[in-house]
Design goal:
Helix content is 0%, strand content 60%. It is built from no helices and 15 strands. A four-stranded antiparallel β-sheet has the order 4-5-6-7, with no helix packed on it. Strand 2 and strand 3 form a beta hairpin. It starts with a strand and ends in an 11-residue tail after the last strand.
């Protein structure tokens, strides 16, 4: 098993990305921390890659206090860093889910500003394309998977569409991230989707 999260969290001191590898009984085999350039680094998603290493989707506040950029970390099988990439601009950008794709690249979802953000990279983490989805309110992507047709499915939540407050939002795209359809689910209360 492998777990990604954060450690050493303290207000005005910060937090570091933490990767923990365990055996089949949950006993720790090793752990690694990853430190960015500012206060807070939080990891939300990890997957083992076909080379036996790991890919981590995290957020790092490169831009300033509570202004985050997406931070992608690739490690070897021992959790040692092979490379890192950042994506983002002046908006508050976060990554909540990463998966390796059939071309050995990566697909990431999260948000940029108030919109769902989908980022496709090559095998070295260089951006191939990005897409945003959203309206005038607060929208987030929390989980992404590649589908059997080569496209992508995202779930999260939307305040821009649906029946009021936040609704679960499901977005289907083609292989280039172009929207094919979307559906909302929920009523008048707060509803969210975290995994698809």
């Amino acid at each position: 098993f492998v777990v990604a999260g954060y450690t050493n969290w303290e207000v005005m001191v910060g937090a570091d990305v933490w990767l923990i590898k365990m055996d089949s009984l949950g006993n720790e085999e090793w752990n690694q921390t990853f430190v960015g350039s500012n206060y807070y680094e939080w990891a939300y998603s990890v997957q083992q890659t076909i080379d036996g290493g790991y890919i981590i989707a995290a957020s790092n506040n490169f831009s300033g206090y509570y202004e985050f950029d997406v931070w992608l970390i690739k490690t070897d099988s021992n959790g040692d860093t092979l490379w890192t990439k950042t994506y983002g601009g002046s908006e508050n950008d976060k990554a909540y889910s990463v998966k390796q794709t059939t071309d050995n690249g990566y697909i990431i979802t999260g948000h940029t500003g108030d919109d769902v953000w989908l980022i496709k990279t090559d095998s070295q983490g260089d951006s191939v394309w990005t897409k945003t989805f959203g309206g005038s309110e607060y929208d987030r992507g929390y989980s992404v998977e590649q589908t059997t047709d080569g496209g992508y499915i995202i779930t999260g939540d939307t305040e821009s569409f649906g029946n009021g407050e936040r609704d679960v939002w499901l977005i289907k795209t083609d292989s280039q991230g172009n929207e094919e359809w979307n559906q909302t689910f929920g009523g008048s209360e707060n509803d969210r989707g975290y995994s698809v």
